[in-house]
Amino acid sequence: MTITLTPGAIGFETLRAIYRGEAAALDPAAFPAIEASAAAVARILDRGDPVYGINTGFGKLASVRIDDADLATLQRNIVLSHAAGVGDPMPRAVVRLMMALKLASFGHGASGVSTATVHLIEAVLAKDLMPTIPSQGSVGASGDLAPLAHMAATMIGVGEIDGIPAAEALAKAGLAPLTLGAKEGLALLNGTQFSCSYALAGLFEAESLFRTALVTGALSTEAAKGSDTPFDPRIHTLRRHRGQIDVAEALRTLMRASAIRASHLEGDARVQDPYCLRCQPQVMGAVLGILRQAAETLVDEANGVSDNPLIFADTDEALSGGNFHAEPVAFAADMIALALCEIGSIAERRIAMLVDPALSGLPAFLTPKPGLNSGFMIPQVTAAALVSENKQRAYPASVDSIPTSANQEDHVSMAAHGARRLLPMAENLASVLAIEYLAAVQGCDFHAPLTSSPALEQARAALRVKVPTLDHDRHFHPDIVAAASLVNAGTLAALAELSL
């Protein structure tokens, strides 16, 4: 299926679908505005006035006037000179989303590009040809210049597409490289689409892992025979936070009709559970709140125009501003990083609680014969290591800045770095939740023949198909890999009826 991109009206679910693999093309209704914008650039050139990005140099060289005969060379030069990224290639899914965001931006008719440029991007997406783009080199201001320049370079037959020479890849697909017109090179490489696509990718992964953590948290509560009183809706209504209210309801739903829970409702000597159980609605509710705020920011960014200068066809003006500055994306990425960090932090505390017999009431390290067997001793250490790694990565990127372009670009957002770290953080979190999944189901096994709720029993059954109960020490790594495969497939997330 090919998704139709309507500029200014692209929803969260649509963006997620593109990230997950759907192709995208621009709404045909956008093309008259694109044509009008390109025509306005031609009229501006005819006037002969110096206009940044059209007949001048770039950045600190904006005062250098370029002759009309050199305008095509100017646009080609900016693409080639700015394609100076380094590092590992971007994931294909993020490249696909980035190109779709660039299409959506051009669809507003404020960038001055030709319809031929738009159609080539559409064709590349339709044929699933993904430019090979180094992931490092943007500071998140004046646009994500280096990575977007690498994308633009493939449009003119330079660089690589899926690891082969771009000109060869285009030719095999029956496509011809572009000859860029006035302003087109600058329009292609200016904008926040690299930072925004990476931040959205991190958000989509965080959404799934958030829901997964509700399930593993509920399983841990069952394993420890924790109280469900802290999830009473009256408590959370008094606090007023929507996320907290929603999380408490989701946890109640997940644990409803549990025989394990019913077995200890009377005569339980514990008055209060540890915070990692009792405060799940408060912590995860706060996480949900900032994820929702980040989603709102990033959907707005995905629907806007962030290159420079902007063309206003109704008045034949090219206005220079600062929409390329990715500060909103940087803040959103920082919030997502905090969310990923905190989901893992409280999950690791639940793992630590489960392996401690003084807190859980379960055998030490969740093994029937502790001493002879170490059980879950070192998986908890692995989870702690991953959580600490994420803590180090969660330092806000947006508080950093470094001047570039001879101090012309003297305050930058660092959105690119802030967004790019999110996928590795999500990968760490997935492993932490996989370990909690294993530990919580192991804990529930000790309560046999009692069972948990229908929803949580689905989660237990899915794991036990792949991983048997740990009755003696064995090679643990394959168990974590198997549990992580279920986490990454969204098996647990599908059981939590809560979304952004």
Quick take:
The chain is mainly alpha-helical and 500 residues long. 55% of the residues lie in helices and 5% in strands.
| Main pleated sheet | 2 strands, parallel
Number of H- or I-type helical stretches: 21
Proportion of residues in extended strands? 5-15%
Question: Termini, distance in Å?
Answer: 24 Å
Number of domains: 2
Q: How does the overall form come out from the CA principal axes?
A: elongated
The CATH architecture of the largest domain would be Up-down Bundle
Within the CATH hierarchy, at the fold level, what is the topology of the largest domain? Fumarase C, Chain A, domain 2
- What is the mean predicted local confidence, pLDDT? 95
Q: Could you name the CATH homologous superfamily of the largest domain?
A: Fumarase/aspartase (Central domain)
Count of DSSP E strands?
8
Provide the CATH top-level class of the largest domain.
Mainly Alpha
* Poorly predicted regions: none
Please state how the strands of the largest beta sheet are arranged side by side.
Answer: 1-2
